[in-house]
Amino acid sequence: MIVIGELLLVVCSISYLVWWTVVFRPSSRPSISSGPFLAGAVLGGLGGVVLLAVGSVLLLPRASALALGTTVVGGVALGAVLVWLTTTLAHRSLTTELPLIVVWTTAQVLAGVALATSGVLSTPTTAVWLGLTAVALLVGLACYLVFYRLGAATAYRVGMVPLAVDGVVAAVLAAVLVLARAR
Q1: Residues 155, 25: contact at Cβ < 8 Å?
Q2: What is the pLDDT, as a whole number, of residue 22?
Q3: 82 by DSSP, 3-state: which?
Q4: Contact of 110 with 52, CB cutoff 8 Å
Q5: Three-class secondary structure assignment of 125-157
Q6: Which of 68, 73, 90 has the alpha carbon at shortest distance from 144?
Q7: How many CB atoms within 10 Å of residue 151?
Q8: What is the pLDDT of residues 24-49, one digit of tens each?
Q9: Model confidence over 126-173: pLDDT tens digits?
Q10: What contacts 25, CB < 8 A, 6 or more positions away?
Q11: What residues contact 2, with CB distance under 8 A and at least 6 apart?
């Protein structure tokens, strides 16, 4: 279930990238309908996050309920802190991208913690899982913070970076899990 969730997150990223390219390309009018791509991004993202969460919960009781609960609470706390930091200290208006970054990160950490505490992932593999998730989080936050300070063409390109990184990370995590299960 977690592998399918990761693959749906890849679909989400690809769909979102195509939608972004069609809708936000500077000095260009969309030549095709962007609706199906936005639908693919929304459905892929929702499906992926739900499957990561359900797959993580299904690993109970082998997985640590305390660790999973702490991860969810930590995700909510991280979101609250990031909203506060970005809106007050960074003077960045809140947009949907920040909650999406936090939900994606929390779902990835939840899956990694569930897989680790249930014995599916080894400690080094868990470190890779969490490290890749942290890289995607930091890239997403950096792009989020600078986006509105850039010119149109640069902002357009920078807006695609987190989408591509998240898709690559989700694909790598799916592969990591398949390889870990094959051993």
Answers
A1: no
A2: 85
A3: helix
A4: yes
A5: HHHHHHHHHHHHHHHHHHHHHHHHHCCHHHHHH
A6: 90
A7: 8
A8: 887 777 667 778 888 999 999 999 99
A9: 999 999 999 999 999 999 999 999 998 999 999 999 999 999 999 999
A10: 156
A11: 51, 52, 55, 56, 111, 114, 115, 177
The whole-angstrom separation of Cα 77 and Cα 173 is: 24
- CB-facing half-sphere around the CA of 135: CA atoms within 13 A: 16
- Could you tell me the two tokens for 23? 């809708």
The rounded distance, in Å, linking the Cα atoms of 97 and 119 is 33
Tokens read off for 98: 């920040």
Between CA 97 and CA 146 the distance in angstroms is 13
Tokens of 177: 């899990």
